[in-house]
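User: Quick sanity check before I run a bigger batch. Here is a single chain. Can you write out its predicted 3D structure?
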Amino acid sequence: MAKAIDKTFLFEQMPVKKAVLKQILPSVISQMIVLIYSLADTYFVGLLNEPQQTAAVTIVSSAFTMLTAVSNLFAIGGASLAARALGQRNDEKAKQICAVSFWGGLVTSVLFSVFFWSLSSPLLYLCGATAATYELAFGYAKWVIMIGGPGTVLNVLLANLIRAEGDAFTAALGVSLGGICNIVLDPIFVLPRFLNMGAVGAGVATAISNIFATLFFLLFVAVKRKSIIVNLSLARLKYAKRHMKGILSVGVPSAVQYALTVISIAAISKFVSRYATEAVAALGIVKKLDQLPLYFSIGVANGLLPILAYNFSSGNQKRRHEAFMFGCCISFGFSLLCVAAYELFAPILTGLFINDPLTVSYSASFLRIMVIAMPMMSICYPMIIQFQAIGNVKASLICSVLRKGVLDIPLLFLLDRLVPLYGCMAVQPVVDTISLIAALYFYRKLKRQEIANLLQGQ
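Assistant: Done. Predicted structure follows.
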């Protein structure tokens, strides 16, 4: 009983800045550890000084991102609806939503892994594989997608559902344990002095670590099943029809964004692969460095989601707005630090991943162009999460599609023609700027509606 009271206090009465920090700090820390183990794959493979190995990891990264789309379909939708149910003081409804989300995520992730296995050859070539990199890319994908895919999806899904109840610490702990496991296993499986499996070994390490994190969460849920809302009972699947539409309607924008990210990454990899293998390897390194502010913003947004959804549902719009603005300030401030560091130290940072002069040269130039997108992206993510938290599907879907999908491909053709190779790197700053403008428009519209409702209430 005390546990429920503590959570109500966090969502409703704790000073806003303290409540936001209590939620987002564990979330950000876990995202940073996820980033580190993501970087670890590229770092340890890069130590081999074989561009083909690094390029293989880059090629699969676009398909691996699709797993995040699958997990977010149920993780964001389920977490948002569960938090709103808690705001309505309806614990049973929250438990039903969690059960439907978990089993939906499990079934979908298995189907995706089977689908990828059956079409692996055309999909990998579509993502930029060549005769020189296909076998390595397939070996890496076999582990991270075909075998480890369900673990990756359930890891993210369970963390979001647990965080929706206000337990950001346990959510962060599980994700972090998986990341630490990956960091420890990477050198063992990758490097010549140990198992010498190269890029394939990095895939094995990633699969094992995600399965380990999922097992941690399942054990936690089993032990705490009587006191938490995260419920995996098959009996509650009889409510799937009642909740699935709501879960999917909120989760689809996030899933679409990540799915379109796959297309975007695959397209840019395909464009870059026409120039040199070193350029493809450089793109992979830059996309890893680019993930630092991205993962930070995702951590902030994920931490904000339960607070925003709960207070929207309970009718406390003032507290929701204050929490949102404080979270945005944190995300934006960190992105500015990243811009300064990346512009000043691009060659040094990219040189940490590979000791190949041509690859480092490409990487530094790419990074200095792509870094311009970071401040816009740092606001876009919390904006989209807020729209999802309050159930504004239209706004979240439009902003998500603008960030990835509608504009990327045409701009790739245009900018690559104007500035061969380097023009491709300018696409993301352009689309993030447009997406931010759209998000601000919808947010302003939301505030006007809230003011109108308040005046009507008076």
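Residues 277-314 form the longest helix (38 residues).

User: Great, the batch can go ahead then.
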